[in-house]
Amino acid sequence: MVKKTAVLDGRAGGSERPHISLPILGTLAVPPPDRLVFYGVLGALGAFGVVEWPLVLVVGIGHYLTEQRFSPFLREAGQAAETA
User: pTM of the entire structure?
Assistant: First the structure.
């Protein structure tokens, strides 16, 4: 399910960004267009063999997760890591 809500995305003021609800990960915000370009270039580098696919996945997932500062999934993962 995609819905738009006002989210502070680190820029001046707030902006409406679409969100996607996933069963395991919770609600995730769709990245803004400039970050989608980053993911596109990263995918192209992997597709053309300039960068190995495992590295593309790690960088892409890591970059996306760092954007999700207020994600409940990350908060729960952090709490689980603290208790372990």
Answer: 0.53
